[in-house]
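Quick one: examine the sequence and fold tokens given here and explain what the tokens say about the fold. Here goes:
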Amino acid sequence: MPLVTTQPPSSSRDPAPIVDREDLKVIRREFSLGEVHGLVFLPNGVLNRNWRIQTGNGDFALKLLHRADAKEVSRSARVLTALARLGLPVPTWVPTRGGEPLLQIGPRSYGLSHWADGTHLPGRQLSLEQAAEFGTLVADLQRVLNDPLRVPLPGTGPRPQASPGGVESALATVERLAATCRALPNPTPFDTRALDLLERRRELLAAHAGHAPSFGPWGGPYGWTHGDLGWRNILHHHGQVSAVLDWDRLAVRSFAHEVARTAVVQFDSEDGVLDLARVAAFVRGYRAATPLPRMVLAQAVERLWWKHLVSFWIFEFHYDQADASADVVLEPVERLAAWWSSHRGAVQDAFAS
């Protein structure tokens, strides 16, 4: 089979990323892959780049990691091995010939895992029962990750703190980014749209300046968490979760924060509207496995909403770091911030179910 790549969704004008042929030779050798029959780009990632690589020794998922930390990837590889042995739906990492979890080729960091069958399903495509089952799976993962007898992770350390984000600093960021857009000699349609979205964010901040939640220590239980359980990192096969992917954000966090963030990134949509029925089902499934006080979760939800108002990470990636990898999610993220700001009560009701 010749080497092939798929194209990204039709909404993208960029060609599918292709693995450098010299890199591919090194990848084959260092991972002992044998003959490579096919290489198919997987377009669902946002920051990392992923391919299905078909070889004489089986199929694998090849990942070009965005800003990889070798120490953290090594830790995640050990965790995945332990989770897989316990029967949890995770892919196992494949080490290089030298036993390393990452293959470094110049500035590029590649990781390889065994292929997992399944489809990425936006959360809105899950049934209410599946949404609840996913909530239970998140609780199970948190519980197992924090069992030192089964998973090789260090202690959790001190209670995590919620970082404050003030209106004044957020408005200053709006001004700085807007000035950057205006100063461009040849603005693109993205730049024009970004300037409009920054103005809308300024209006949201002005309207909700007095609604900032309290900051400080996170309430409720905390410990090791996956950190990015959006639908792009979940595979479904035959109605069940077949794999939880992308463990490079493994860190100690508030459990309530992970529950709130997971529900939002699973059940949002391109139009920025949360599917509150599925949010409620997800939370019920989680609580059926792990008790979580409603007040603790309510606090996490408000803090997450506020973070959406004062965070400009996509703009900063694009304009400060010349990194367009997250541009595709700018519009949905901004729509969500606006919709959520107008429906805070309904969102809290869903999480309180």
The radius of gyration is 21 Å. The chain has two domains: 21-114, 123-163+210-351. DSSP finds eleven helices and twelve strands in the chain.
